[in-house]
Amino acid sequence: MGPPGAGKGTQAAALGQRHSLVHIATGDIFRANVAEQTELGRTAQRYMDSGEYVPDEVTNAMVRDRLGQDDARSGFILDGYPRTPDQVDTLDSILSGLGEQLDGVISMQVDTEELISRLLKRAEESGRTDDTEEVIRHRQEVYQAETEPLLRIYGDRGLVRQVDGMGSVDDVSARIDAALPD
Ligand code: AMP
Question: Of 33, 82, 109, 170, which cross-links 41 as Cys (Cβ 3.0–4.6 Å)?
Answer without folding.
Answer: 33
